[in-house]
Every structure is written in C-alpha cells, then in structure tokens.
Amino acid sequence: MISGSKKIAILGSTGSIGCSTLDVVRSCPERLEVVGITGHSNLELLRRQAEQFRPSVVVVSDESQVADFVLSNSPDISVLGGQDGIIALVTRDDVDIVVSAIVGSAGLRGTWAAIDAGKTIALANKETLVTAGPLVMQLASDRGVSILPVDSEHSAIFQALRGGRNAEVQRVILTASGGPFLNHSLEQLEHVTVDEALAHPTWNMGPKITVDSATMMNKALEIIEARWLFGLTVDKIDVVVHPQSIVHSMVEFCDGSVLAQMSPPDMKLPIQYALSYPQRWPGPAEKLDLTQNLQCEFIPPDYERFPALLLGREVAERGGTCGAVLNAANESAVAGFLGGRLEFTQIVSACRDVLNHHEYDPNPDLEQLIELDRWAREEILRWKP
Ligand code: NAD
Ligand code: MG
Question: What residues does the ion ligand 2 have nearby, CB within 5 Å?
C-alpha cells in the first residue's frame, strides 16, 4: 500500500533534468504529483508538459514571454511569470519537494526561497552551492530543510555515506567521465570545435554542463558542491577519471573499505532517489547488465591538460567570494565559447584571470555574491588573452 503522494514543483522542467524528472513522475504516478513547472524558453514543450501533467501552476520565467503563453481550456492552471512567479510557486503550502533544475546561478533565488519556506530540495542546480554554499547550507540548517543531491556523483556519495558514520569517512572519491577530450593533447585541445565539445561520450545533458564536462570544470564545480553539501575539507575530496560512468562515486572509510554506487549512466535514478528518499522505489532507470563484458577503468586525472580541476580545489579551499566569481566567470566564458568569441582552452584561462583579480572577502552576504556574479560575467566580456 502506498500512502499519500509527494507533491513536487520542478524548476526548469523543460531542461534535460526537468524532462527526466517528468519521466520519473510518469512511472510513479501514484507516488508523485506535479504541483508546478517552470520553463524559460522552449515554451511549446512547457505547454505540452502542462497539458499532460495538469499542474496547478505553470511559470514562464522569461517575463517578456508570459503574455504570449496561452493554455487553451485550462482555467484550472495559473500561469505566472518571472522570478516572482517562481517564488510564488515554491512557497505554496501544497508543495513538499522542489526539484531545483534551472541551469546556472539563475537557479539561486528560487532555490533560496524554497529553502526559506521549509521545502525539501532535490538539488540538480550545483551552481547554487558553488555560488553561495555556506549561506545556503546555513539557511537549510536554520529551517530544518534537507538538501538531497540529484547530481549523480553526490547522490552516489550520499548513498554510500549510509554505510558508516561521518567521523569514519576517510575521503570521498568523485568519478569523472573525462568528457570527449580525455585523450587529447594540450595542442589538440586548442583547436576543438563547439560541436566536438557538445558530443559527450556517456551522458546526454544540457549544453552548459556538457561543455563543463569537456573542460572538466564540471568536476571542479562538483568538488566545491561536495565541500559544502557534505561539510568536507578539500583534503578529503579526490577525483578519479572513470570513462565508463558506471561507478558514480565512492566513499572510503577509515578501515580502508570503499563503498561505491553503480548503475548505467541515467539521471532518472539519482533524481528518483532524491524524490523517494529515505525509501527506494522500483523505477524507470536502466538496470546494470553484468552479463555484458563490463569495463571499469580508473585513471588519475591530468591537472596539466585539465587545469579547471586545480581551480576547483583552490576555490573549495578558499571559500568566501571565490565560488560566486568562478561560477559566473565560467557561465559567461562557456557562453562566449558557444557563441564563437572564446577558444575552448580560453574558458579556463579567463576564469583563472578573473578569479585572481577579484576583491576577495572571506565572509560575503548574499547580495554581495549576486553583485560579484554580475561583475565576473562582465569581466569575462572584457577579457583578452
Ligand atoms: P538544460 O539547459 O537542459 O535546462 C535548463 C533549464 O533551466 C530549462 O528548463 C531552461 O528553460 C531553464 N532556464 C535556463 N535559463 C534560465 C533562467 N535564466 N531563468 C530560469 N530558468 C532558466 O540544463 P540541464 O542539463 O537540465 O541542467 C540543469 C541543472 O542540473 C544544471 O545546474 C546542471 O549542472 C545540473 N545537472 C545536470 C545534469 C544532466 O544530466 N543534465 C547532471 C547533473 C547536474
Ligand atoms: Mg555530476
């Protein structure tokens, strides 16, 4: 017998994580109910999602497009716009869990409002923790809110951590696919194209995180995410390259035992775990087939070819304003690369420069971080090699 469904709001329902979340809902209709969805572009998809899932609220987060968004024969569905619409959705009494799946620091305000309102968070939007980790974790603690990871590595660590006590953890080991350029030389990296960077070997994701995987900035952001989410010092966070993306991460305990979480690369599983926690449910994610000749390689990362990893360690260690600056610089530099303004290797060089010359503050408040986010984006637009 299943008692009561969990009521969810999905921020960024039209994205890769948003669509996978709706796949999970489709396969567990008696356990999950969609109260609200939001989308910024691709409003045709948002409309189809609204028609299929009949949420109470649909938010068009790009304010300029709200007036054109009409749902026919749907007087029961409220259409709201902009950040105010997102905040109105996440603070509704009937929302239990907010799936935070907007890309970039654009997801921060909505996630913050949801935590402030006491909602459980299923967090895909790692940029929120990279930008404002200590403030976000403090708010969650003050409100008694659980932040449940959706990022596959952090979900794996979260699951493996149930195998021992926090004081018994020796280190966590984040796995990285290595992206499409794992075996490229430095020289080859200088000439890669946008199409090559968008062709990820194991994961199918939105464009920003796909480029982040190619530079390995994604792993840098994940080191910072793990730092704040699990309250670990940087010396307890390691990275290993695992091209098959089957072991999603590991925890090593003080006795030398290493617990890993394994499954084929399919985000539906970590999304569902965040929604089912503390239970497990049967679900739609692909299952591991051990009758196939399964390869599982583990390779140390190359910090020279992928210097983003060093940035990640440094920023996780220094904290303060560094995360907001690195994150925004990277978002802006990735947009510059996708738009043809920056070369691939310049993404990380530009981030390094902007980080180095920002005015560091070890204890910033939220408004300061939002202002630095704006500043770092502009610095990238001014950046010259
Ligand atoms: P995506 O680009 O596919 O989707 C992004 C969503 O955010 C869309 O719904 C879009 O409409 C919305 N959006 C974009 N800009 C917005 C803005 N300014 N304001 C409000 N909404 C906006 O991205 P994705 O791959 O689904 O990634 C979403 C988040 O999940 C990112 O933080 C990413 O790092 C994280 N994540 C993704 C994956 C994955 O497999 N895709 C895995 C782990 C973590
Ligand atoms: Mg990840």
Answer: 151-153
